[in-house]
């Protein structure tokens, strides 16, 4: 599975809701290792750069998941104007701008998104401010946890 690809469990419930069907198959269909992987280990970033990389990966994964959900919605007959498909499309557009904020500098973002300079600068400034605040909160939380264990 690609690093930023969707997790299948994020897709299955959506597909069941689209079709209105769910079934139980009493056979082992997948191999799952308990005690490893995403369900076992939540990595604490040690630097702002690492935190930024993890956030970018999370945004890219959500985009991938939404693309799959949109494709599934269209496959079962929902049109582009359906409320579900339209909501997915709106969220995709917002996340793609955010991903561009990670991937491009100020000038490239302004040109790629055809934004006026002030809006492009505000977007990048807001993203960086929010990420720095979240990283500071996580760092403080880690410090408190460490002090509590000592």
Question: What would you say this structure looks like, in words?
Answer:
- The chain contains five helices and no strands.
- The protein has 150 residues and is an all-alpha fold.
- The protein has one domain.
- It starts with 7 loop residues before the first helix and ends with a helix.
List the helices and strands and how they pair.
Blueprint: H1 8-19, H2 48-75, H3 83-103, H4 106-112, H5 117-149
Helix pairs in contact: 1-2, 2-3, 4-5
The structural class is: mainly alpha
What quaternary form is this? single chain
Helix and strand succession? HHHHH
Task: Outline the biggest β-sheet.
Answer: none
The rounded distance between the terminal residues' Cα atoms is 40 Å
Number of strands: 0
Radius of gyration over all CA atoms, rounded: 19 Å
- Strand-residue proportion: under 5%
Number of domains: 1
Question: Overall pLDDT, averaged?
Answer: 80
**Helical element count?**
5
Overall 3D shape: flat
Helix percent band = 55-70%
User: Low-confidence stretches at least 5 residues in length (pLDDT < 50)?
Assistant: none
